[in-house]
């Protein structure tokens, strides 16, 4: 409970900072009042059209990534599982790029998230099949690397063949992952899928606990493994797919957050889910405030996905070394 | 309480693993013995409802296959041989996982749950381990903790696959006593055993399996005969009774 309150407080504080502070030259108080529609029209516009969607997307996507990381690690019983490094994000990106490439995205705005979710879903199913055939950590990571590479190669192929060179730049920048210049429309497009996916994942909490003992014991305890797998696969595909559709590929949040929080939850998987969602939201808010601070200083903003990868990559390597020494603590 | 196996057969990847196994038990400590690959573990998984073969498993005359997973889990507790755990949970939390079938998705932890955990920890004498992480205890201690987890289910049928593997002699005897005590409470305990001496001394009933078939079934002295040991294990063993304690010592391969 203490952990829960601490994390909630952290998310609220970072949310307010994210709203109050940005590139436009307006005061923190003016920005916060602007969000609730008080003050000069230009301030209200900046607060409601720029800052609010950006902060909301950061919270929902960060939360989804943290939650999916915790759930995938619980399901696969593997501390290295994460939507990014097992290829789910690349799969989602490929799905979205295919939609852009064939012009479906111009027909309906739902095509982008639909493509991303389908891509993410296919990858989670593939990873699951590969990982359950040979349950080792190495097998999972290698499968992830292979699937990521294939998805990225296919994405590159789609871009190579793209008839529209102007769209290319857009795709490349979107792939790097960012919540910059997003609108409330993006929030409304992704939020329902993220919430639905998160709900599916949260419904598996107790079953994930039983899975601590292995699949056979969990099965003997009455856990319906097929149902748990389907809920987590569909939930992850929806949440990560929707996030990728509006903000591109943002990696490593789902790896770092559950790992940092796990000791505080007594290593019980069900107790890790909500804190990981809050922690993911907090981490991504921090990262987004960070890239804006750097952007203010250097004059050009680093992409959020690039930033999280710069922090997360070394962390991933550190984790691999720790896990080689036995328990995933 | 009766558990009946009616003509159980199972094929895995075209190989006949179990061939027409039938048995009827109404309690006590039952030992499943037989060489490696005889089908003991497969039979346990079929009884536990994890694998589905031909034939039927009946609990009090009702087929297990029609029970919902949670209802089945309340009546059959299964301890598989796998001992690996990914996360270093505290021992008490691991044991508490055995209450899973008794709890709904949002049901709070009850006093009954707590009592079951305490009783199980006491039964395997692991109370002093309760707050240690499972990563910080020995393999033998982990085996006992996982047995406590299986006891926590408080199911009328307890299925134990390889409970005494990796245990020192004192703890082997302790685990056998725990299983015997559970059987004395009116439960049916079915245990896969490799130690024929323990099987001889502790079990009320032995089922000797070979090549997926029941080779012999009955009281331990009737099953552990020189002839059966030679046919099934290909060994010659020294059997006898010393100061009231029966023993079986494998001597040589035939």
Enumerate the spans of chain A where pLDDT stays under 50 for 5 or more consecutive residues. Answer: none
Cα separation of the termini of chain A: 22 Å
Beta-strand percent range of chain B: 25-35%
- What's the arrangement of strands in the largest beta sheet of chain B? 6-7-8-3-9-10
Which quaternary structure do these chains form?
heterodimer
Overall number of strands of chain A: 0
Return Rg of chain A in Å: 20 Å
Please state the structural category of chain B.
alpha/beta
What does this molecule look like?
The complex is a heterodimer of chains A (329) and B (254). Chain A is an all-alpha fold and 329 residues long. Chain A has helices spanning 2-20, 28-35, 41-76, 88-101, 104-107, 111-133, 137-160, 165-175, 184-202, 205-211, 215-220, 225-247, 253-261, 269-298, 304-323. In chain A, helix 3 (41-76) packs parallel to helix 9 (184-202), helix 3 crosses helix 13 and helix 10 packs across helix 14. Chain B starts with a strand and ends with a strand. Chain B has nine helices and twelve strands. Chain B has a single domain (3-253), classed as P-loop containing nucleotide triphosphate hydrolases (Rossmann fold, 3-Layer(aba) Sandwich), CATH 3.40.50. Chain B has a six-stranded mixed beta sheet, with helices on both faces. Chain B has a four-stranded antiparallel beta sheet with strand order 2-1-4-5, covered by helices on one side. A two-stranded antiparallel sheet of chain B has the order 11-12. Helices cover 32% and strands 31% of the residues of chain B. Chain A binds chain B through residues 77-79, 203, 205-206, 209-210, 212-214, 216-217, 219-224, 262, 266-269, 326-329, and chain B through 45, 48-50, 68-74, 76-80, 82, 84-90, 93-94, 97-98, 100-101, 103, 105, 133, 135, 146, 149, 153.
């Amino acid at each position: 409970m203490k952990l829960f309150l601490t994390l909630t407080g952290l998310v609220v504080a970072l949310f307010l900072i994210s709203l109050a502070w940005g590139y436009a030259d307006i005061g923190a108080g003016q920005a916060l009042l602007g969000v609730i529609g008080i003050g000069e029209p230009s301030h209200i516009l900046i607060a409601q059209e720029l800052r609010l969607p950006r902060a909301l997307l950061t919270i929902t996507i960060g939360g989804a990534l943290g939650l999916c990381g915790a759930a995938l690690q619980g399901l696969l019983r593997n501390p290295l599982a994460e939507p990014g490094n097992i290829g789910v994000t690349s799969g989602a990106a490929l799905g979205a790029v295919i939609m852009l490439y064939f012009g479906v995205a111009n027909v309906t705005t739902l095509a982008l998230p639909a493509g991303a979710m389908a891509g993410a879903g296919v990858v989670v199913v593939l990873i699951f099949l590969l990982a359950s055939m040979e349950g080792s950590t190495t097998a999972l990571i290698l499968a992830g690397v292979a699937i990521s590479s294939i998805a990225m190669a296919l994405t590159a192929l789609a871009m190579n063949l793209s008839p529209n060179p102007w769209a290319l730049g857009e795709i490349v920048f979107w792939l790097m992952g960012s919540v910059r210049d997003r609108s409330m429309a993006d929030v409304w497009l992704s939020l329902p899928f993220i919430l639905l996916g998160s709900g599916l994942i949260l419904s598996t909490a107790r079953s994930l606990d039983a899975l601590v003992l292995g699949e056979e014991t969990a099965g003997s305890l009455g856990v319906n493994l097929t149902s748990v797998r389907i809920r987590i696969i569909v939930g992850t595909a929806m949440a990560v797919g929707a996030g990728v559709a509006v903000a591109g590929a943002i990696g490593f949040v789902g790896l770092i957050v559950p790992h940092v929080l796990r000791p505080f939850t007594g290593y019980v998987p069900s107790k890790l889910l909500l804190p990981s969602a809050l922690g993911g939201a907090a981490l991504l808010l921090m990262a987004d405030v960070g890239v804006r601070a750097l952007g203010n200083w250097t004059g050009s903003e680093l992409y959020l996905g690039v930033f999280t990868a710069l922090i997360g990559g070394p962390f991933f390597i550190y984790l691999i070394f720790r896990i080689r020494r036995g328990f995933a603590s | 309480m009766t558990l009946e196996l009616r003509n159980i057969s199972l094929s895995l990847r075209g190989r006949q693993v179990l061939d027409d196994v039938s048995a009827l038990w109404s309690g006590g400590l039952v030992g499943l013995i037989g060489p490696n690959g005889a089908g003991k573990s497969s039979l346990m998984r079929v009884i536990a409802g994890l694998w589905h073969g031909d034939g039927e498993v009946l609990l009090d005359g009702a087929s297990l296959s029609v029970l919902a997973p949670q209802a089945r889990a309340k009546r059959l507790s299964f301890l598989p041989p796998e001992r690996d755990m990914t996360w270093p949970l505290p021992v008490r939390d691991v044991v508490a996982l055995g209450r899973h079938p008794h709890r709904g998705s949002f049901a709070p932890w009850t006093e009954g749950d707590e009592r079951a955990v305490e009783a199980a920890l006491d039964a395997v004498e692991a109370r002093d381990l309760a707050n240690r992480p499972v990563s910080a205890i020995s393999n033998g201690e982990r085996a006992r903790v996982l047995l406590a987890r299986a006891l926590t289910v408080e199911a009328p049928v307890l299925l134990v696959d390889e409970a005494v593997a990796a245990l020192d002699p004192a703890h082997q005897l302790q685990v056998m006593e725990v299983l015997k005590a559970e059987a004395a409470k009116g439960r049916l305990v079915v245990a896969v055993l490799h130690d024929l001496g323990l099987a001889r001394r502790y079990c009320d009933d032995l089922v000797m399996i070979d090549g997926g078939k029941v080779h012999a079934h009955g009281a331990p002295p009737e099953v552990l005969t020189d002839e059966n040991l030679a046919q099934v294990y290909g060994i010659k063993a020294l059997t006898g009774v010393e100061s009231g304690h029966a023993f079986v010592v494998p001597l040589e391969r035939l």
